[in-house]
Amino acid sequence: MALRRRPGGLVRALAPLVAGALLVAGGALAPGAAGLSTAAAATPAVASTRPGADLTQVSADPWRDPAAVASAAQVVRRSAALVAQPIMGWGVGNPEPRPGVYNWTGLDRRLRFIASTGAQPVIALVGAPDWMKGGTPGTTDWQRLGVAPLPSHDEDFARLAAAVARRYPHVHDFEVWSELKGYWDTATNTWDVAAYTTLYNDVYRALKAVNPHLAVGGPYVDMVTWGAPSAGGHPSALVGPWGTVDQRSLDAVTFWLDHAAGAQFLAVDGGLQTHDGLDPVDPGAAVALFSALDAWLAERTSLPLWWSEYYVGMPGVRGHPARWLALSTAALIQLTTSGAAVALLWDPERYPGSHSPALWTSTSHPGGGRPTGLAAVTALFLAHFPPGRRVVHTGSAAAGVLAAGSSWLAVDATDQPVTLATPAGSLHLAPWQVVVHPG
């Protein structure tokens, strides 16, 4: 497919880096190879999602190439509205190795990087010092990072959360814990969400004592799916091309909603890879999981919905940049047209073994920190599909167009070429191709 005219400055700065998968359209569309035609009715919606990122172990830290780090910061400035950082692990050290003795070095460093990007900082209150888990004060066993605080230390963790809030008064948003790590009860074969909610409530009250205007959310539960209809013995009624959602994930959300002391947002995470490895045969159609879960959650709460992590990677997707990009784009369309307020990308820096298509390339060497194709997509969301903007979605979950005025985005997350109707005319897309048109 040929494209004419040069694109505008915003997305041109984020030039397509996934060869053959992403194109930036600036003018008239030229004929291409015809494929499956999708003539589905247009569905109006109001865009809702601010895309962002979760900093992890490998990120744009000062000891990496300075020019690459500076470039990565500019990518974030254009492509991520929010950036989250855990208080322990994932690139930072133990914030309180001994009771009352704080080490803010790692968090200070990561918060400085976020500030340099202009993104809204988010702190994930996850990772408890070892002495809160029965360990020896002054020691840190990183193999036990996923262990929750002992109930007798819930208030100690809440005090640490309050200390974090006082240290970083410019941070407004706090996620409490992550994926219910350490709260799995082997005796009942489900999460001990009551124990988690006790911790959450202690943290919530401690944060509100520091600043009643802080936004606090949970339960940050993993929305587990299964390929087998039995869903490990816990099937829910949420069944589709993605498989079956585990009822225990839904029950955890319901319990937290009923017993939380308060919240300003509801946090979940999840993706297309199933728990039993029987992954969707049609991953493009499976991205409808995100809108199905958004609808289920919206029936139960009016709280803003945060996807604290969202994933589209599966064995058949990882290692295939075009597929990863197309599925991520399709997922973002589902999220923003179904009411999700925030969608955070885990692993925004590309490295071997990363869990996402990333927003920037490795900062470990000169010439790194460059924008990826997904950065161009999220930049378009921020600039042209911001929350509150009226948009129109045509096509299917797997192959469709999102448009607002003269700006549009087209994606084919299938193995077949498709023809889509865009505001600029008919568009022929190759399999796993994305086209952004900034208008």
Secondary structure blueprint with pairings:
Elements: H1 9-12, E1 22-24, E2 36-38, E3 43-46, E4 50-54, H2 66-79, E5 82-86, H3 105-117, E6 120-125, H4 154-167, E7 173-176, E8 184-185, E9 190-191, H5 193-210, E10 215-222, E11 225-226, E12 235-240, E13 243-246, H6 247-259, E14 265-271, H7 283-286, H8 288-298, E15 305-311, H9 321-336, E16 340-346, H10 373-384, E17 390-395, E18 399-404, E19 407-412, E20 418-422, E21 425-429, E22 433-437
Parallel strand pairs: 1-22, 2-20, 4-5, 4-16, 5-6, 6-7, 7-10, 10-14, 14-15, 15-16
Antiparallel strand pairs: 3-17, 8-9, 11-13, 12-13, 17-18, 18-19, 19-22, 20-21
Helix pairs in contact: 2-3, 2-10, 4-5
Number of strands: 22
CATH topology: TIM Barrel
Largest sheet composition: 8 strands, parallel, barrel
CATH superfamily: Glycosidases
DSSP helical segment count: 10
Total of domains: 1
As a percent range, the share of strand residues is 15-25%
Mean pLDDT rating: 92
CATH class: Alpha Beta
CATH architecture: Alpha-Beta Barrel
Helix coverage percent: 25-40%
Radius of gyration: 22 Å
Give the uncertain stretches in residue-range form. 1-20, 26-34
Biggest sheet strand order reads 4-5-6-7-10-14-15-16
Instruction: Indicate the overall shape.
Output: globular
- How far apart, in Å, are the first and last alpha carbons? 19 Å
Q: What structural category arises from helix and sheet content?
A: alpha/beta
Notes on the protein architecture:
The chain has 439 residues and is of the alpha/beta class. The chain has one domain: TIM Barrel (Alpha-Beta Barrel). 27% of the residues lie in helices and 25% in strands. The protein is built from 10 helices and 22 strands. The chain has helices spanning 9-12, 66-79, 105-117, 154-167, 193-210, 247-259, 283-286, 288-298, 321-336, 373-384, and strands at 22-24, 36-38, 43-46, 50-54, 82-86, 120-125, 173-176, 184-185, 190-191, 215-222, 225-226, 235-240, 243-246, 265-271, 305-311, 340-346, 390-395, 399-404, 407-412, 418-422, 425-429, 433-437. The protein has an 8-stranded parallel barrel with strand order 4-5-6-7-10-14-15-16, surrounded by 6 helices. The protein has a 6-stranded mixed sheet with strand order 1-22-19-18-17-3, covered by helices on one side. It has a 3-stranded mixed sheet with strand order 2-20-21, with no helix packed on it. Helix 9 (321-336) links the parallel strand 15 and strand 16 (340-346). Helix 2 packs parallel to helix 10 (373-384). It is globular, with a radius of gyration of 22 Å. The model is unreliable at 1-20 and 26-34 (pLDDT under 50).
